[in-house]
């Protein structure tokens, strides 16, 4: 048997990514809790470490991965390495780029909670007497406990920081902490604005510098437009617009990664100044499952003897998708009655040697002799149809590159594709220029 360089496992029929998404949307309870959000302690998490009852914590969130075992591309044994424990470090080592929050959204049980047990038996033998003042070590540990469990933690003082790093808790206190679950993050709330010219309407969303947002714009008709802004892996900000007057489709999307500004520019059907853009509703959604949309291969351009540039066109041409730098999409197709899925990184339109309309997704795909999906996508005739393409997915943090201007990038073959968008950004950025 030849070695599998990607550590992939042959999945049973009916266990593709498409099948997993169908199962999640079927109404089946994948949490085991009836869909209720339940905080989970480390002790409770440790009880669920068997293949038939497997829970796992990643970055402070606990998931029931029992039903996902047979869908995991790396196999059940690989997934079991993190069962019953905080698997954050293991996840980061193996595939930190995977958008697990969307993939396991239907399996979410609740937040991972830290527990503190205080033994006061020695000081409570006389129920009528008052407790003496706690010793210094107890007071310090109590301060740490309050910091760890507070929903709105205060800024740590020097004393608490020093105690956390140098003083172990006394024997009467059992403390279990997870660095990942205690990380603080300020949620991004986009700010909306709009401007216009006589013949043009621009919808503007301000996120955050280097937030690296994904954008999905869907045209319902010339008056109805839905905008999804994808931030922080599992958070979607959905805006539904009923515009004051008709606009032309498609729009033009312009993103400034350094400022976090997103602009959607629409041409007005009838040039005139409007008194209002119309009406808008807003919804913030967390732990959203992966969404799939149907695409066809519209253009195939041969690059080498085994590699092609492909332009994927959405059905009805009513969807425009912008993939963040360092993110990918999942592409699925029905081949011989089974759905096969692979991940591909869209490349900048400038890297494709043909005109690429804004609604199209440009890919560079290498065809492998034993790759059923890659051969299906790159075949010259007939061009591939009825492909299921996911929303952008990934966890790449563009902000980590802010203070660096020298990079070493290593790629083999088609592994170059994730670097093209990154190089495009690095060479064009204004701050810390290369």
Describe this entry's structure for a reader.
By secondary structure, the protein is α+β, with helices and mostly antiparallel strands. It has three domains: about 15-115, Flavocytochrome B2, Chain A, domain 1 (Roll); about 190-285, Immunoglobulin-like (Sandwich), CATH 2.60.40.790; about 290-434, Translation factors (Elongation Factor Tu (Ef-tu), domain 3), CATH 2.40.30.10. The chain is built from nine helices and 22 strands. The strands form five sheets. Strands 20-19-22-16-17-21 form a six-stranded antiparallel sheet, sandwiched between helices. Strands 1-5-4-3-2 form a five-stranded mixed sheet. A five-stranded antiparallel sheet has the order 15-12-11-10-18, with no helix packed on it. A hairpin with a 2-residue loop joins strand 8 (about 190-195) and strand 9 (about 200-205). Mean pLDDT is about 80; it is low at about 1-5 and about 135-185.
Q: Topology of this protein?
A:
Blueprint: H1 17-24, E1 40-41, H2 42-46, E2 49-50, E3 53-58, E4 61-64, H3 76-80, H4 88-95, H5 100-103, E5 108-113, E6 116-118, H6 136-149, H7 158-166, E7 173-175, E8 191-197, E9 200-206, E10 214-219, E11 224-231, E12 235-243, E13 252-256, E14 261-267, E15 278-285, E16 292-302, E17 307-314, E18 319-322, E19 329-335, E20 338-344, E21 361-366, H8 372-378, E22 387-390, H9 417-428
Parallel strand pairs: 1-5
Antiparallel strand pairs: 2-3, 3-4, 4-5, 6-7, 8-9, 9-14, 10-11, 10-18, 11-12, 12-15, 13-14, 16-17, 16-22, 17-21, 19-20, 19-22
Helix pairs in contact: 6-7
């Amino acid at each position: 048997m030849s070695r599998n360089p990607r550590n992939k496992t042959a999945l049973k029929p009916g266990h593709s990514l498409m099948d997993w998404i169908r199962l999640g949307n079927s109404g089946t309870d994948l949490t085991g809790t009836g869909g209720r959000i339940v905080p989970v302690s480390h002790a409770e998490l440790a009880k669920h470490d068997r293949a038939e009852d497997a829970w796992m914590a990643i970055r402070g969130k606990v998931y029931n991965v029992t039903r996902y075992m047979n869908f995991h591309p790396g196999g059940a044994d690989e997934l079991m390495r993190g069962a019953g424990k905080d698997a954050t470090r293991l996840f980061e080592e193996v595939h930190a780029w995977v958008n697990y929050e969307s993939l396991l959204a239907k399996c979410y049980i609740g937040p991972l909670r830290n527990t503190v047990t205080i033994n006061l038996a020695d000081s409570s033998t006389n129920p009528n007497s008052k407790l003496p003042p706690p010793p210094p070590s107890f007071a310090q540990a109590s301060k740490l406990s309050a910091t760890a469990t507070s929903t709105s933690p205060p800024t740590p003082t020097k004393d608490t920081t020093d105690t956390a790093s140098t003083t172990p808790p006394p024997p009467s206190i059992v403390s279990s902490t997870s660095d990942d679950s205690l990380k603080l993050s300020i949620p991004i709330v986009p700010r909306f604005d709009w401007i216009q010219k006589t013949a043009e309407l621009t919808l503007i969303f301000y996120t955050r510098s280097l937030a690296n947002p994904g954008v999905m714009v869907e045209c319902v008709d010339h008056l109805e437009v839905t905008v999804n802004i994808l931030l922080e892996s599992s958070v979607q900000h959905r805006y539904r617009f009923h515009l004051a007057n008709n606009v032309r489709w498609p729009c033009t999307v312009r993103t400034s990664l350094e400022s976090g500004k997103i602009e959607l520019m629409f041409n007005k059907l009838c040039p005139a100044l409007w008194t209002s853009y119309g009406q808008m509703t807003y919804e913030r959604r967390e732990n959203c499952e992966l969404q799939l949309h149907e695409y066809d291969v519209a253009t195939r351009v041969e690059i080498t003897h085994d590699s092609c540039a492909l332009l994927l066109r959405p059905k009805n041409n009513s969807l425009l998708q912008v993939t963040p730098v360092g993110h990918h999409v999942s592409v699925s197709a029905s081949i011989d009655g089974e759905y096969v899925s692979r991940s591909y990184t869209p490349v900048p339109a400038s890297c494709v040697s043909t005109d690429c309309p804004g609604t199209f997704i440009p890919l560079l795909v290498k065809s492998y002799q034993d790759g059923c999906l890659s051969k299906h996508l790159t075949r010259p005739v007939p061009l591939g149809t009825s492909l299921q393409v996911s929303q952008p997915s990934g966890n790449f943090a563009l902000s980590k590159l802010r203070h660096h201007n020298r990079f070493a990038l290593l790629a083999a073959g088609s592994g170059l594709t994730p670097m093209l968008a990154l190089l495009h950004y690095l060479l064009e950025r204004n701050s810390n220029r290369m």
